[in-house]
Amino acid sequence: MDVQSGLPRCSRHPDVETGIRCTRCEKPICPTCMIPASVGFQCPDCVRGGSGTRHAPSANQPKTLTGGRLRTDGRAVTKVLMALNLALFLAVQASGDRLVSQLDLVGYAYYPVLGEVVGVADGEWYRLVTSMFLHQDIVHFLFNMMGLWVVGGIVEPELGRGRFTALALLSGLSGSALVYLLASPAQASLGASGVVYGLLGAWAVLARHRRSDMRPVVVFVGLNLLITFTRPDISWEAHVGGLVAGALLTAAMVYAPRARRNLVQYGACALVLVIVLGMVLSRTAALL
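The line above is the sequence of Peptidase S54 rhomboid domain-containing protein; the predicted structure tokens follow.
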């Protein structure tokens, strides 16, 4: 006598009753079909097709090299950064030198344009950030945007949006902090070079990790460093600060043990931020 248990039947094996459902599509699945996931079990169709629902994340969802979510648009954050630079560039062209004097990176100086003492040491810490997106000269702007587009298009897909955003901002901030620490307090600095050089450092680490041909990377970075140290109007501190921070952060993201990946990656970002804060505080104390 066939006794019915009232349980649903497996969606792939109709003759088998089961009390288990796929955590993604909620179809009934039998022990033959069950594939362990981070939460519960999934059916072969969901694992193979990558189709998801709101109920649970996919255990097989494609990941970037550093554990981030793989996106269709590999330049989304790069485009946002470029848009910020473009918006400020257009604002500068419309308003003139006064806006530059209000947003560029200066340690501590009297600005005739503003008629007052200004600078990071005077409490204007925002200059460390605004100067990262500020350009006045068209050639400087186009050169940095070209570097951001090209290298950002290489690095962002490898890191994912969140990690790429952290890398770009912390690289630019590190460049600004090194300028503030080492340059003359009256020297004005501006531009996205710290961000771009941070991406160059990231590119070098990624290429090394992938065991790619390092010659194009070495030549490109070397030429940029040569220009940095041979032209007197370039802030080498911003370039070096961004390059070092970008390389170190990417190394932490790429080589972090999988079991402690988030801890190492977040810890590296926090460490760079603490170092930046330390440089800013020490320089401020020296200037006041």
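Note on the example: The two ends are 93 Å apart (CA to CA). Strands lie at 35-36, 41-42, 109-111, 116-118.
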